[in-house]
Amino acid sequence: MRRTRRTAAYAVIVENDRILLPRFRAPGGTGVWIMPGGGVEHGEDPYDAVVRELSEETGYDVEVTALLGVVSRRFPAPRRGLRLPSDHHGLALIYEAKVTGGELRSEQDGSTDLAAWHDLDALPDLPTGDMVARSVRLWRERPATGHLG
């Protein structure tokens, strides 16, 4: 069985009780709201990766203000609708950031098709990836270890 690992960096950006999320273009035309961020390129610092990804996906310039934690997920079996190898390990660094400039816009020719602000209270009613709930929990709880038990 082939094993792969992907390291990614994401940011929680909350202003006035609203969170910034891009929408992933899921197969079949249904969108899923995800955390802004993405894969860390070979040799790239995760800090730099999250700043780059935020600019690409949202149009905003951001300043990273804190490292909230790390989320480790393993996908040992193929998942319907995802192009993941049979045994995939995802390692995500979750940062907190704030907008410092730029203008909100949607990504062009990327994996997301819309970026928008959402009320934190509305998150349970939105179709979101599980990383959104984990990231918001890290942001709210701020565990000293950076790990959710």
TrEMBL record:
Keywords: Hydrolase
Superkingdom, taxonomy of origin: Bacteria
A matching Pfam family: NUDIX
A GO term for molecular function: hydrolase activity
Domain spans labelled Nudix hydrolase: 4-141
Names of the cofactor(s): Mg(2+)
Homology family: Belongs to the Nudix hydrolase family.
PANTHER family associated with the record: ADP-RIBOSE PYROPHOSPHATASE YJHB-RELATED, GDP-MANNOSE MANNOSYL HYDROLASE
Name under which the protein is recorded: NUDIX hydrolase
Organism, as annotated: Streptomyces acidiscabies
